[in-house]
Specification:
The protein has 512 residues and is mainly alpha-helical. It has 19 helices and 2 strands. The chain is globular, with a radius of gyration of 23 Å.
């Protein structure tokens, strides 16, 4: 217990220290929200990765999907690395950085407002972001509770309060730079921690080959595909016992990052185009280790089939699976895991609260009821809203409506379903119309919210994946039949990609 408490104390002191160190980088709105658009590639890449992977992945997703899909759940981690990180950086990274600077946009809703010439789009986009970031934040708190209960036997409420207060301190004081520097530190902890956890879990089961052999002997008697129920070896097979559901999870958790404000806004802050290239490589490597490791580790969850993971009605409490896997580890490793999951959770939480507060301040209040706010007042309002958002999400986290994966699926489905298509197409095409952006907002939010009540798609995760794909179809179709944007304005916006650079010729003689 002393080791675990000591590790936590050092971790907390370091996070708060970074927050106060970063105060000098949070003197104006641009610095507070984007770090002055001067953040290096390694810090940006780690900020992207640590915002991506929280306790939701370590505890909720790894446990649930490892139980359902076995070793095939590793595909989710690979999708996160190559689609959610590599392709996101390649397709969105440079263009986002260049165009948002041209438009002087600091948030995703502000991009919609300025790119498509609509203040209403900016305000509505901000409201959507604020509403659906709350359940995601609550799921981050919720993912930590069972782990702390296992390690310290302390009430869930105490855990949530400590995490909320600590995050509030360094985000309010240091802004984006504090979250980015802490993300870098937390990312390093996560890299070493996940490797140690995988090694220890497999060693406890007799090693990798023995663990694989044990897993192959377990029958898949609860899979969603009737023809495969009761089959042995499916949990160690290439595509697992339910390939279609696996694809849905890969799409939501990988493609979803392309439309999440707290993720995309990391590209706004990176220093320059050279930094984007470095960041692409670092971010992909980080995701490969963290996401691949989490889901690979979760794939062995059926080897820890103990009474503690079952509810009173006999159903599996997915959020209890990973804590039970970790309960057998030595104390020093449990301490490392606690710091690891805290790192993952706080990095995501800080990104969410900063995104939400800046969006509400710049895109709603500044555009409507507080139009005359100067830079100093905007900073004060943003800091107050950081505290408000933490309290709001904390209140929801105390009585979460469902388990982790469902809460995150609803949040990601609505946000990425509404924002992904118009944002990506808006970076590349001059033909995207404001009407198509409205249609995407309605489609993404509509599918997610209606499905919450009607449940025409059984899994919220699959519903989220469908919402994203629907947006990718709706935007070009609606754009083809609605009023075209002003050509002169759009041409001027896209000049940011066509700037010519004059360089000195390095050879005097032409080759024959």
């Amino acid at each position: 217990m002393l080791i675990k408490i000591l590790l936590l104390f050092v971790f907390f002191a370091l996070m708060i220290g970074v927050g106060f160190y970063s105060r000098r980088h949070a003197g104006n709105v641009n610095d507070y929200v984007l770090g002055g658009r001067n953040v290096g590639p390694w810090i940006t890449a780690f900020a992207f990765g640590t915002s991506y992977f929280s306790s939701v992945v370590f505890i909720g997703y790894a446990g649930q999907f490892g139980w359902k899909f076995g070793i095939a759940s590793t595909w989710i981690g690979l999708g996160n690395a190559f689609i959610g990180s590599l392709l996101a950086w390649l397709i969105l990274g440079r263009r986002t950085r260049v165009m948002t600077q041209k438009l002087d946009a600091r948030t995703m809703p502000e991009f919609f407002g300025k790119r498509f010439g609509s203040k209403a789009l900016q305000i509505v986009g901000s409201v959507i972001a604020f509403i659906f970031l709350v359940p995601y934040t609550a799921s981050v708190y919720n993912g930590l509770s069972n782990l702390f209960n296992m390690a310290f036997d302390i009430p869930y409420e105490v855990c949530v309060i400590v995490m909320a207060l600590l995050t509030a301190v360094y985000v309010i004081v240091g802004g984006y730079m504090a979250t980015a520097l802490n993300d870098f530190i937390q990312g390093i902890i996560m890299l070493f921690g996940i490797c140690a956890v995988i090694g220890a879990v497999l060693a406890g089961q007799g090693g990798f080959l023995t663990s694989l052999n044990k897993l192959s002997e377990i029958s898949a008697d609860d899979v969603a595909v009737p023809a495969l129920q009761g089959s042995h070896g499916l949990l160690t097979s290439f595509f697992g016992p339910d390939p279609l559901s696996l694809v849905g999870v890969v799409v939501l958790t990988s493609l979803g990052t392309w439309g999440l404000p707290q993720m995309v806004q990391k590209f706004y802050a990176i220093r320059d185009e050279k930094a984007v290239k470095t960041g692409t490589v670092v971010s992909t490597f980080f995701a490969l280790i963290i996401a691949g490791g989490c889901y690979f580790n979760g794939g062995f969850s059926r080897l820890f089939d103990v009474p503690a993971i079952y509810k009173a009605d006999g159903s599996v409490a997915y959020d209890m699976i990973v804590p039970q896997m970790l309960a057998t580890l030595p104390d020093i490793l449990i301490g490392v895991v606690i710091v690891l999951v805290l790192s993952a959770s706080m990095s995501t939480l800080s990104s969410l609260v900063l995104t939400s507060s800046s969006t509400l301040t710049l895109d709603v209040l500044k555009k409507t009821v507080m139009k005359d706010m100067d830079d100093k007042k905007q900073l004060i309002v943003m800091r107050v809203l950081v505290a408000f958002f933490i309290v709001l999400s904390f209140s929801l986290a105390l009585k979460p409506p469902t388990f982790i994966a469902q809460m995150m699926g609803i949040s990601w489905g609505a946000l990425a379903g509404a924002f992904l298509a118009p944002f990506m197409y808006g970076l590349y095409s001059k033909k995207v119309t404001a009407a198509s952006v409205w249609a995407s907002f309605v489609t993404g939010v509509g599918i997610t919210v209606i499905n919450m009540f009607a449940k025409f798609i059984k899994s919220p995760i699959n519903a989220g994946a469908i919402a994203m794909i629907a947006g990718l179809i709706v935007v070009p179709v609606v754009s083809a039949f609605t009023k075209k944007p002003d050509k002169a304005f759009v041409d001027d916006v896209f000049t940011c990609y066509d700037q010519k650079v004059t360089v000195r010729k390095t050879t005097a003689l032409e080759e024959e």
